[in-house]
Structures are given as C-alpha cells and as structure tokens.
Design a protein that fits this description.
The complex is a heterodimer. By secondary structure, chain A is an alpha/beta fold. Chain A has helices at residues 17-30, 42-50, 70-80, 95-101, 117-149, 170-176, 180-184, 197-207, 255-296, 303-332, and strands spanning 9-13, 35-39, 58-62, 86-90, 108-111, 155-159, 165-168, 215-223, 229-241, 244-253. Chain B has one domain: Rossmann fold, CATH 3.40.50.2300. The chains are: A alpha/beta, B alpha/beta. Chain B: The modification 4-aspartylphosphate is found at residue 59.
C-alpha cells in the first residue's frame, strides 16, 4: 500500500520529546508528507491556536502537560480548537478518564502503550471524516431551523400529549404578541376562545395516535395576547421533537379574507331581496296600470266607467311609487364598507 | 257539453279588467270569478262534469289557497284533457315559469296583464280551437 499523499496538517501537543519522536515516526509511515507542528505546553498551544493563519486537520493531545492537565486542559483546548477534531493520547493509568473525556468534546483517544502506525493513521483519517459529517449535519440542522425561524407565517411545535408549546418561530411571536418564554409556558388551549374548546377536542381526536407525517388542515379561531380574535387556516404534521410526540403547525391568518367573504355574502342577500321585490311586488301595480290603460284606450267606456278606471290607475301608480322608494332605500343599505353591513 | 271559464284572483281590479277583455275578445259570455283558490276548488269539485270543458285563469299568490295548492287539489277529480289552466302572475320569476310548465293542467304561463289581443291569440291554440267552433 502506497503512502497517503494528502498533506495532513497535524498539531501534536506533547511535552515528552521521546513520545513526540515516536508519533512523528508513526505518522511518516503512512502519510507521504505530513505537516506537523509540535508544542509542549498549554501556553504555547494557546498562542499557536490563537493565530488565525494556523489551521489544522487534527490535533493530537497529551492529557498531562506541565502547565495544565486532565479535564481543565480538555475544556480549554476544545474551546480554542476551532472545531478541529481532537484525539487524546493517554497512558493505561489514565484510561478511565480518557473514556469519560469523549463526553467533553474529544473525538477519540489512543493508548500510548498500544500505539502503532496503522492505528494512529486510521484514527486520524476516521476522525477527520467523522468531523466533516458532523459539520454537514449541523449545517443542515441550522438550515432547517432557519426555515422554521424565518418562515413569514407563524409556526410552532407543540407536545401531542401535554399540548404545551415546545418551540415557536419569530413570526408567531410577532403575530400573537406573546414572547417565546410566554409561549413555552402556555398550551395550545390558551390561544383559543373558551367556546371553541369542543372544536379543538374534535380536531385533536382526529390526529390522536397518528404516525409521523400525518397531515391535518382546518380553520380555527385563535385569540391574540391583546384579546383580538382571528381566523386561521391551520396545517399541521405529526413529528418527533426531542424524542417527544409532537405536531408542527403552520398558521395562516385569514381573518381579512373571511370578513371580505362575509361582506359579499351580506351584499348578495340584500341584492337577492331587491331582485325578489322587483320580480314580485313591483310588477303587480305595474301590470295593473298596463291593463287599465289598455281598457281605457279601447274607447268602449262611458264617462262614469272612465273616471272609475282612471281612479284605479292613479291608485296603482301611487302604490308603485311607494314600492320603488322602498327598493331604493334597500339598495342604499348595501355598503361596500364591511363595517357598515351587519355581520 | 258546455264550456266554462273560471277567473281565480284576489285582485278585484284585475278580475274587472279581465272580464272586460274577455268580453272584448269574445272569449266567453259569462266568466265566473273567485277571490281565492279554495273557493274555486270547492266550486269545481261540486260542479265538475267530465263532458264539460274548463278554461281557468289562475293567479299564483292568493290567500287561503294559492295557485299551486289549487292545482294539487283538483288532481283528484279533474282531467287534463278537458281542464286547461293558464297560470297568470305579475311575477316573471323563472322558477315559477319552470314549475308551471311541468304541471299537467297548465297550458301556458302568462304574465299580467292579460290583454284583448292575447286572448284572441289563445283562441287559436290547438287545445282550445274546438271550444270556439262548438260554442258559437
């Protein structure tokens, strides 16, 4: 097997010159031209890592340095390592601690007494690769977090069991008036009018026990912090959130749309009334006048009859007049301003 | 065999005018008039003769029994082959027109007023032609 041609940039934090020489030898065994830097104290490590020019692919860290060791050393190095993976080099005596150190942010540990060129090489390659995946996952997590946080529509996640808000986005905070802290101390019942509870129960029943990905859509009324009631088109999906059964919700405020539709419905009702009046009431006196005029124009009536028929025609004309006035006043009640129509 | 004409309308002026037009057009010498559907239905039920011919001008909106109810009630005894109804209304409502056309007794939906010329035209309808040949 030929040597790995990638010029790994390796920082070895090791105060024992013998150990360092050994590591150098081992590295040369499988890597064609490693770029190795060695420091022997935490102070020097701090100086080197503070330099923005200094970048490494991996850090090999001896857990006992003259000026710092153990947990304190690990915490400090992790802090300044700029997310470069760190492999601890440790003796048998420190083995128990080395295992625990993984939870402090180290990528791996190697026991010095058992170190060999192939073990060292494998650990370096593996941890660099692993670190790259972790970075990728974090950035994709952040991307999805942004999609949630930056969504122009209010969104939240709530616990399917307790109904508590687990997370809300910025738009929900803006729209509803509650802070994130207020939201997460509330349940989704707290944003409903009391009289709408049965509707909520019904909707919850539909998605009870459903698996991840179950989609639900419906229109509900919500109450803002200032007491205002809004209509929202709710879309929700069942998800797992921090190991809890939860639902992610998208709430689209459709209050304006609904008020607009109601205004048009009221107008329609009034227009229908006008049309009915026109068809049934207006035509009655009109048809009478038409008939009477037809009789009058026949020339077959005597003077007394003529007077009688003219009297009927005048009565009908008056009736027609009052009906038309009524139609006009009904039409004037149809306002385009939604607030003036009784909803 | 005789031919009887019934005018059923709660509007007295309309009845008066219609009688004038019926005389003018020689449609019938002695039309009978009724102020509501119930009075007309009672009369027809008591006097109906299968060999007679009936032409009925029927208003829709009336107290006690409206035009539609009248048509329902005469179904029991009257026969569409000798009972011809003209539905008469001041309304021009499409729903009323459609409903009238579906009824077995109704020959035509007419909107008020009924004028002399209209009546002269009606006498030429195939269903009614016979009445005027026989009657004179």
């Amino acid at each position: 097997m030929g040597k790995d041609p990638y010029p790994y940039r390796i920082l070895v934090i090791e105060d024992n010159p013998g150990d360092y020489l050994l590591i150098q030898d081992y590295l040369d065994e499988h890597i064609l031209s490693p770029k190795i830097k060695n420091v022997g104290t935490f102070r020097d490590a701090l100086m080197l890592l503070s330099d923005p020019e200094a970048t490494f692919d991996i850090i090999l860290l001896d857990l006992s340095l003259p000026d710092k060791s153990s947990e304190e050393l690990i915490n400090e190095i992790v802090k300044i390592s700029k997310k470069v993976p760190i492999i601890a080099l440790t003796g048998y005596s420190e083995l128990a601690f080395a295992v625990k150190s993984l939870s402090l942010g180290l990528s791996d540990y190697l026991v010095k007494e058992e170190l060999s060129p192939i073990i060292l090489y494998k650990s370096i390659v593996y941890n660099i690769e692993r670190n790259r995946y972790i970075k990728k996952i974090r950035s994709s997590e952040k991307k999805y977090m942004d999609l949630f946080q930056m969504s122009p529509l209010p969104m939240w996640v709530y616990d399917s069991e307790t109904l508590k808000f687990l997370d809300v986005n910025e738009s929900a905070v803006r729209h509803y008036g509650y802070s994130v802290e207020e939201f997460t101390s509330m349940s989704i019942k707290d944003i409903r009018p009391k009289e709408d509870m049965p509707d909520l129960e019904k909707a919850l029943e539909i998605s009870r026990g459903k698996k991840t990905g179950f989609y639900y859509q419906g229109v509900f009324r919500h109450v803002l912090k200032n007491g205002e009631i809004i209509y929202v088109d709710i879309q929700s999906n069942v998800i797992k959130f921090n190991e809890r059964d939860a639902k992610i919700v998208l709430a689209n405020d459709i209050t304006d749309r609904i008020i607009h539709t109601k205004t048009i419905e009221v107008q329609n009702e009034k227009l229908k009334e006008v049309a009915w009046l026109q068809s049934h009431i207006v035509r009655a006196p009109l048809s009478r006048i038409m008939g009477l005029l037809n009789v009058l124009s026949s020339g077959k009536l005597n003077e007394i009859e003529k007077k009688q028929y003219l009297g009927y025609a005048i009565d009908s004309a008056n009736e027609l007049d009052s009906i038309v006035r009524d139609v006009v006043s009904k039409s004037q009640q149809i306002h385009l301003d939604p607030k003036k129509n009784e909803l | 065999m005789s031919f009887r004409l019934l005018l059923i309308d709660d509007d007295e002026i309309f009845i008066m005018m219609s009688k004038f037009m019926i005389k003018e057009s020689d449609f019938h010498p002695s039309p009978l008039s009724f102020e509501d559907g119930l009075a007309a239905a009672d009369f027809l039920k008591n006097n109906y003769q299968p060999n007679d011919r009936y032409v009925i001008f029927l208003d829709i909106n009336m107290p006690k029994m409206d035009g539609w109810e009248f048509l329902e009630s005469i179904k029991e005894f009257a026969n569409p082959s000798n009972t011809f109804v003209f539905m008469v209304s001041s309304s021009t409502d499409d729903e009323d027109v459609a409903k009238a056309c579906k009824n077995q007794f109704v020959l035509k939906f007419m909107s008020k007023p009924i004028l002399t010329d209209t009546l002269i035209q009606l006498k030429e309808m195939p269903e009614l032609k016979q009445l005027f040949k026989d009657g004179k």
